[in-house]
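Why show two proteins at once? Because comparison is the fastest way to build intuition. When a single record is shown, students tend to memorize it. When two are placed side by side, the eye starts asking what differs. So, the first record is below.
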Amino acid sequence: MKQLKSNLSTTNKALATLRDQTIALYPRISREDGADESLSIANQKKLLTACAKRLGFTKLLFFVDDGITGTRRDRKEFVRMTEELKRGHIGAVMVKDLSRLGRDHIRMDEYIEEFLPEHDIRFISIGDGIDTAEGEDEFIALRNWVNERYSRDISKKRRLTNVVKGNEGIPLSPPPYGYIRNPDNPKFWVVDEEVAPIVQRIFKEFLSGRGTDQIAGALEKDEILTPMNYAFSKGIMKSGRRNLENPCRWNSSTVIKVLTRQEYCGDIINFKTYSKSYKLKKRIPNAVEDMAIFHEVHTPIVSREDFERVQTKRGKSRKRKSPTNGEINMFSGLLVCPDCGGNLGYHFNQKNHDITFFNCTRYNRRKSDCPTSHYIRVDFLEQIVLAEVRRLTKFASQYEDEFSKLVMGFSRKIVENDKQSKQKEFNALISRDRELDTLFNRMYEDNIAGKIDDERFARMSKAYTEEQAEISEKVKILQADLQKSEDKEVTAEMFISNVRRYTRARKLTAQMLNELIDKIEVYHIQKINGENVQVFNIYWACVGIMQIPDLPKLPKVDVTMNTRKGVNVTYSPQRVIA
């Protein structure tokens, strides 16, 4: 037993000796430090290593945060160092100066004066002449306060510089995929001829009716590097995670990001987001009126017309379905069940694959109270929609003024109603966000005054932050929707232009449907005056359901088909209440 105790005592002494000889060295640099060579990571490492060895430390552990501001509390290596200190295997921490440890004076005061002593850890700051092994330094709190003021002043100066540059039309963000910095004037962008065709391909395929998942799959199949991996291949460092195993692994979100960048029209958009404080790194979407938008600054990669068409089409949030054989029908994603709101799915007859049809997917899966299947044959559907498109284009060509007035009238009414609804929701979210800011500030003051303990402060802070993050996402979506509402009248003019382009159309195409139609409600077959009648509501792009006047020069839409053995079904363009 004595021998065991002796061995344990020897082991503990050895561990204590090892701990006393182990030191954590923490170099850090960020953009706010400018081009001060003495603060480079390499120079900090050299200085820290020399001083640690001179003080007799034999085990040196580096924790390096490169390019991260000292006001952030989630610095990766700083957090990792803190966790290692808690484990009790490190006896000291050394930094070049207090500003390297951090620029949040409240947090740093607590860290140096409470956390480190609590874990019996020696603290050394070379530039400030601080070594807690030689006693306390009563000026630590003052130095930490000065370091934080410096960070705030630098942030303020940078913001003022950005305001000036941003309002002059100089881009504040790096060029998106498809552009590079202009070699002759790095402040501006020029087209990257190597990948600009990929951007054009994405827009073209989306407008032809392909979904974002399909486009992503096709790009991966063709071994096209993702924007992140392409940038790294050119030596351009970007934040974010890379897929090193499959650098050509595109996903839907990346395609959507390309499709929503207005910069591809040649525009510069500054002040898209803002932060509430230099301490808070969360970016909050700016209201459109607070952005600085400059049109046609650089060479466009896609036309403005195509960009607007994509935004209009994306607003439909279509979800395309395919049958088991992988075929995508041009009506997929357009047909909607008016009873349950679900999409109609595309299928083929098991006995005769030449017969293809749509029916309600929710009815099939019994996932709703949808009472009927809403069955519709594709060949019947094609005849009806082509007849309605011909009637629409005839109206546009034969009665040009009446057509334009009708479309613009419908468009304005829809835009106004939609805008009022979204603006009301937007105002409510902004009001709640400001209320949360006030609550957070009061809570912060109460925490400093000791009225709220740290645990409760952390819990409430987390709840408020999560709610504000949700609000931020909703506001971002609503801002985009409101911007689309502002552009709807222009889009209505494009709709008129599109209708005229299809005046001589003899067959339907996926592009034609996507440009002219938002959705089609398909009702189940009804018995009306002894006839089997199927009712449709066609929602035209930017217009909705539009009643085309019964004018002399316009053709009638009269389609009847034997869709099942012995059953004739007639199409009705009117909304009939059974």
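Second record. Ask yourself what differs from the first in the token line.
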Amino acid sequence: MDRRKERRLNLELPVRIWGVDRMTRPFAEMVRVRNVSNHGAILIGVRAKVQTGEVLDVQHGAARAQFRIVWISLSGEAGIEALAFEPPVFSMSMGIGLPKVFEMVGTG
């Protein structure tokens, strides 16, 4: 049984991330996200040397918010969770920020 609090979409989207790595050097990268919810996602292809607990800025289109890194894999993936009171970057309720094809899902 899935214990997740939110519905997730298994799709990939391009995003821009930036922050400070574990050596306190600023970085900015274009990566992809998958397994998207209103308050979290999995980053794919992260090259910066980041660590759990660090805060990143994530931007998709015009939407931007801060996320905390929850976990990191050796393959360059990282689980992220939006900070409290941050606006949803990947809003699934209104389809904002998602490709047009996903806006129509469930509108019958």
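One difference worth noting in the second protein: The chain is about 5% helix and 45% strand.
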